[in-house]
Amino acid sequence: MSVDKTLEKLLRGESDANIRFDEICQLLEAKGFRMRVSGSHHIFTKSGVMERINLQREGSKAKPYKVRQVRKILAQYKLL
User: Fold this and answer.
1) β-pairing, 53-55 with 41-45?
2) Residues in a beta bridge with 53
3) N or C: which end of the chain has fewer CB within 10 A?
4) Diameter of the chain by CA atoms?
């Protein structure tokens, strides 16, 4: 799935439990976040963004509450 389609799905907020983990990682990297991995935690940081995004898998999907966190941070820093 393309980054644009993933962003559209994220912004709709209708399917937080149905966003693939790999798709959200690609979206964050496309938005300029750097990823590092520590065990099962994928930690994303970006210059100018105070919060760190810590994602974990739930099967092949991202955890729904983490998807909501990503949406909030992207909106807060106007990275949409």
Assistant:
1) antiparallel
2) 44
3) C
4) 31
